[in-house]
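Translate structure to sequence.
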């Protein structure tokens, strides 16, 4: 987690994928982070190839910030390409504009 940010995450059983639960949860976490916690920025990360997680982040209002590679100790036994990740983020100011 980068300094000054709150990071959201989710993990769901395969049986409930595609039912909108991750998006519903993500939106609630974003709102909680900005309204109750007072976070200036909320971010999330996923593997680059995980299109479903990237779409959830986008539906929650987060935008692509940067690409990165997870360290080998985070995903042991995987190649650098398999550890390719993306970071999405949303500032409080942008979120407030989206709510208007």
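Result:
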């Amino acid at each position: 987690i980068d300094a000054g940010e709150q990071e959201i995450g989710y993990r769901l059983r395969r049986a409930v994928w595609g039912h909108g639960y991750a998006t519903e949860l993500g939106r609630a976490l974003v709102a909680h982070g900005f309204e109750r916690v007072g976070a200036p920025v909320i971010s999330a990360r996923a593997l680059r190839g995980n299109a479903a997680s990237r779409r959830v982040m986008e539906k929650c209002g987060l935008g692509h910030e940067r690409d990165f590679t997870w360290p080998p100790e985070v995903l042991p036994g995987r190649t650098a390409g398999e550890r390719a990740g993306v970071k999405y983020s949303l500032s409080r100011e942008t979120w407030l504009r989206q709510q208007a």
